[in-house]
Every structure is written in C-alpha cells, then in structure tokens.
Design goal:
CATH architecture of the domain at 66-268: Sandwich
CATH class of the domain at 66-268: Mainly Beta
Distance between the termini: 47 Å
Subcellular location: Cell membrane
Helix content: 10-25%
GO cellular component, one term: side of membrane
Protein name: Copper acquisition factor BIM1-like domain-containing protein
Keywords: Cell membrane, Glycoprotein, GPI-anchor, Lipoprotein, Membrane, Signal, Transmembrane, Transmembrane helix
Order of helices and strands: HHHEEEEEEEEEEEEHHE
Number of helices: 5
CATH topology of the domain at 66-268: Immunoglobulin-like
Shape: elongated
Main location: membrane
C-alpha cells in the first residue's frame, strides 16, 4: 500500500487552508501583505505537514515479505526456507537435505541480512535431523540488533567439542524481525572434514558490513545446552573482529559510532515511527495554541469567511493585471 510522504500530502492538500487575499492586495502588488496573513499561511502548511506525519507510520517488515530467509546463510548453504513455516522449530519446517563439506576447525559462518533484525543467535547440534530446539547448543554471544548487510563470525571449533572427521552437524539461526515477538528458525546441514587444505567451493563475503550491530554481553546472551561460549562473535556493543584461517578476506570493524547509536536507540524503548508521531502531535498542539491566540488577537475572524482585520479598500490607478560496493573482501572459491 502506497503512503503519501509528508511533503506530498502538504503540497497536494494545503489548498484546503488557502486564504484568498483581500481586494486591496489584488489591486496593487506593491502593498505588502500583513505579517499575520503570511504567518497564518505558514502555520496552515505546517499543520498539514504535521498531520500527515502523525498518520504516516512506516510499515515494518513481515515474514511473508520474503521468499528467502531475512537472514540467509551465505556460507555454508542453508537447507531451504518457506515463509509459511518459518516459525516452526527447530529448522523452519524444512527437512534436512544435501550436506556441505565443512572444516572441523577454523570455519566461517557468513550471513546476509535483508532487513533489520533483533535477538539473533547462531547455534549448533551434533544431530543430523534434529526435531527439538533444545537439541542445539549456544557457543557465542547473542546479537541484540543488526541491520541489513553482511555479517561473518567463526564457526564452533568442532574438534574441541568432541566431533570427529566424518560427523554430521546442523547449524541454526534463530532471529526476530524488528518489532515482531515471534522467533523464526533457519538451518544449514554440514559434514565435517579435515581443516588442512580445505577451501570453500563457493565465494562469499566474510566481514561485518552493517550500519547497526549491537552484540550482547555474555550475561545478556542466550545460553543453551553445553554452552562453549568463547566470545567468538563480534566484540561487545558492535565492535567486530572476524578472523579466518582460509581465503584472503578478513572482517573489519563496523564502527563504534554506529554501535553507540544502536545501543542508544535499542535502550530508548520508543520506535522511530512512534517518536515521529509524538513529535507531530506536539507540533499540532502548538499550532492549535497559536491559532487560538491569533483568534483572540483578532487576526482571524470566523463566521463571515473573513481573515485578518478589516481594512479600507484601496484602489490603485493603472493596469491591475495579475502577476554495490567496492573494497568488500570476498572469499573466492578454489578449483
């Protein structure tokens, strides 16, 4: 559904607030328009703009907007996605499929976000086809807020977790869309191979390129199963540092300024749309008070369609005619 912007609404409908000039000002363009008339026109246009801002609320993303997961595995590949079952734990209602060969140690998990997300967690299990959410284990800090872009972090060190070469494992992302209470689930299936000499068969971006990245502390993070949290997610409050033992790409800092902004906004408890609506409402109240004051000052007369103080008509002799992005490290596939 298309929503007028505030400026479009003001331009298209401000004629409803138009005040015809008095005859004396039509006759002689050299006579200045009284300040209160200009003020009233300005107030009317501001009122129209504020009213439009109050009713124009930005629509947030819904899961049905997406044909692929809002946060997608770039590496390793995901098992699949259906938006109708994305809330079904533990893997969004998609059965396991072809498994990707994956290094037992030193692997990357590369993700692509299509929209703003909240409470993102990356989990793992040693089960080939898990049927319960609690079969999974956490190993890194939760991501409280992340915007559209790319995110990359180290995978679990499966060798240190007791896995053997040849074992199957399943990775899981759980996440929330901004402003949506329900969690969504998305899985990837892997088979562990020797790390030595391993090269990913696909190219992928491994770096943190987002305008917002707010990572929880260990105390705030989700802890599930045999938690092996080694803080391998980005550093606290969005300072990212992703390392890799394969390929040429490395992660980079997403920027402290952006992360500080994310922390401030996430702690305010008021969305941008709500804040805009509050601001517009305050503006409308102020304008209403100005109009009331203008009425009692006799700048506005209601009833006869006359605005402003009455003046004697002054006629003037003569003619009265009218007047994608460079510099992003990419891990390349090797033959």
């Amino acid at each position: 559904m298309y929503i007028f912007s505030t400026w479009e609404w003001a331009v298209n409908y401000s004629h409803l607030f138009y005040i015809p000039p008095s005859p004396q000002y039509q006759c002689n363009s050299s006579i200045p328009v009284p300040i209160h008339k200009m003020l009233f026109h300005a107030v009317a246009l501001t009122f129209a703009s504020s009213l439009a801002a109050a009713v124009s609320v930005t629509r947030r993303a819904a899961i049905t907007d997406f044909n692929t997961s809002p946060i997608e595995f770039t590496w390793p590949p995901a098992r699949g996605f259906t938006n109708s079952n994305a809330t079904a734990a533990p893997c969004g209602g998609v059965a396991s499929g072809v498994r990707t060969s994956y290094p037992i140690s030193g692997g990357d998990i590369a993700l692509t976000q299509q929209t703003d997300l909240e409470n993102v967690n990356i989990l793992y299990t040693n089960q080939s086809n898990p049927t319960k959410f609690h079969a999974f284990n956490s190993y890194s800090d939760s991501i409280l807020n992340i915007s559209a872009g790319h995110f990359c972090q180290q995978a679990p060190d499966f060798a240190n977790l007791g896995f053997q070469v040849g074992d199957d494992a399943t990775l899981l992302i759980i996440y929330q869309l901004e402003g949506v209470e329900r969690y969504f689930y998305h899985c990837a299936d892997i088979n562990l191979v020797e790390s030595s000499g391993f090269n990913a068969p696909v190219s992928y971006v491994c770096g943190n390129y987002t305008s917002t990245l707010d990572v929880a502390s260990d105390e705030e993070s989700l802890h599930l199963g045999s938690d092996s949290n080694s803080n391998s997610t980005s550093g606290s409050h969005g300072t990212s540092a992703t390392t890799s033992s394969t390929g040429t790409g490395t992660g980079s800092s997403s920027g402290s300024a952006a992360s500080e902004s994310a922390v401030a906004s996430s702690g305010s408890g008021i969305s941008a749309a709500a804040g805009g609506g509050i601001g517009a409402a305050v503006t409308i109240v102020v304008i209403a008070l100005l109009l009331v004051g203008a009425y009692f000052a006799r700048w506005i007369t209601i009833g006869a369609g006359t605005f402003g103080r009455k003046n004697n008509i002054v006629l003037n002799d003569g003619d009265h005619s009218s007047v994608s992005s460079a510099g992003v490290p990419i891990k390349h596939a090797h033959a």
